[in-house]
Specification:
This protein is mainly β and 252 residues long. It has one domain: Glycosyl hydrolase domain, family 43 (Tachylectin-2, Chain A, 5 Propeller), CATH 2.115.10.20. Helix content is 0%, strand content 42%. The chain is built from no helices and 15 strands. Strands 1-2-3-4 form a four-stranded antiparallel beta sheet, with no helix packed on it. The chain has a four-stranded antiparallel beta sheet with strand order 5-6-7-8, with no helix packed on it. Strand 11 and strand 12 form a beta hairpin. The radius of gyration is 18 Å and the shape is globular. The protein starts with a strand and ends in a 12-residue tail after the last strand. The relative contact order is 0.10.
Length: 252
Amino acid sequence: MAGTWMLRDNDLHGPGTLKKWNGKYWLAYHSYPGDGYEAGSARIGLAWTEDEELLEWHRLPEPILTPEEGEPWESGGLYKECLLEHEGTFYLFYNAKNQTHGRWIEQTGLATSTDLVRWTRHPDNPVLRVTPGAWDGGFVSDPCVLRDGDRWAMFFFGFDYKKAQEGVAYSADLLNWTKHPDPIIETGQPGELDASYAHKPSVIAHEGVLYHFYTACRKPQEGDRTCNFFPEYRTIAVATSRELKEEQRGGD
């Protein structure tokens, strides 16, 4: 199980205050049916709590979205969720893959609901599609959707089966999206933390600065404390919307 998003205030530049619906906090997650690393086609569920400490959670008894009920583009499994509420409608963005083995394609879809239980997939899914032959020609994944003034911004990562890089798309209505053509965070130089992948966005605001956290990956080097089985060295990095002062960077 991987919990990825809690229902919160939509403002990209706000404090990200958690929102309640029907007196409960809500968490979107996905889970895998098999044993091992991401084994089987993942499904999406919701959990809720009335505990202000956010420690005691309860799950809806059935998944809200499954690959078996979807279209071929999502038949391989459903992943990273982004849940928001706008004008009485809940929007659930998620990325999905078209097959479980080989070189699959991941794209981003949308489902909507008015009660968090019954969900309807958008008829024009996927709402964010890969661009053949481009830096996002294999994946457009891990949506992070927030309100940026009079428009919506979706942060995502693109993958061309060589490098993963961060991108952004914009929408006026949460349904029709236009991608910025180039990555907004590119992979680093050889040997740097994000030389292979700069991906999986999480964006928050603090004191007027946007902090864009992402997973950075490179090939292992001597002295690395950990190394996963791909193999690669993987850690969390951050990019900011403007250069930080010394005190903001944690200096003396």
